[in-house]
Amino acid sequence: MRKMAWVMVALVAVALATSKAPAQEERAYPFEGKFTLTADVGRWFTEGEDVWGYSVTLGYFVSPNIDIAVAFSDPEGSGAMWSAKLRYWFVSGAERPNPTFYIGGEVGRTTGFDPENVTVWGAHVGVDWLITGRVSLYGEVAWRHFGGDVDEDAWIVSVGLRTSF
């Protein structure tokens, strides 16, 4: 998992080093009506242990302010989680501010967790920096509650890349 973290750091460095500032017309609302694909790596802080994890998310912007998404998360050695996300982006005016802040909520289900698979819900806040008209770098802090017999909370701090198509 540490290799994944270093790969993500290298990808972010390359993206920042080779990017040019997006033109004003690219910044208007670059993701509206488009699908987005994100990948991130983060540190999961739980009551029992702290582990590295990653997630991949496929989203769709239904408006400049709202996107819906499905996500797959895998904290190292703990099993996986599928979830649905709804996010509100703080966008107003003629163009998307850079950086842009967002808040959201999610609900999902774990697979492969011991002692059982449980329902998960949580909230997250993040900031998204547009690097080019199609790529952005983001940072996020999330809280998730794992229900059932697990009854545990996790805080996740992550960084990732978002692209649109």
What does this structure look like?
- The chain contains 2 helices and 8 strands, in the order H-H-E-E-E-E-E-E-E-E.
- Strand 3 and strand 4 form a beta hairpin.
- With 165 residues, it is mainly β.
- The model has no long low-confidence stretch (mean pLDDT 84).
- It has one domain: Porin (Beta Barrel).
- An 8-stranded antiparallel beta barrel has the order 1-2-3-4-5-6-7-8.
- The longest helix has 17 residues.
- Helix content is 13%, strand content 56%.
- The chain starts with a helix and ends with a strand.
Describe what is shown at a glance.
The protein is built from two helices and eight strands, in the order ααββββββββ.
Please give the CATH class: Mainly Beta
Q: What is the overall silhouette?
A: globular
**Main β-sheet: number of strands, strand sense, barrel status?**
8 strands, antiparallel, barrel
When the domains are counted, the total is 1
Biggest sheet, strands in spatial order?
1-2-3-4-5-6-7-8
The parts where pLDDT drops under 50 for at least 5 residues are none
Distance between the termini: 28 Å
Number of strands: 8
| Number of discrete helical segments | 2
What is the gyration radius calculated from CA atoms? Answer: 16 Å
Oligomer: single chain
Order of helices and strands: HHEEEEEEEE
**Helical percent range?**
10-25%
By secondary-structure content and strand pairing, the structural class works out as: mainly beta
CATH architecture: Beta Barrel
Return the average pLDDT rounded to an integer. 84
CATH fold description: Porin
Q: Beta-strand level of the residues, as a percent range?
A: over 45%
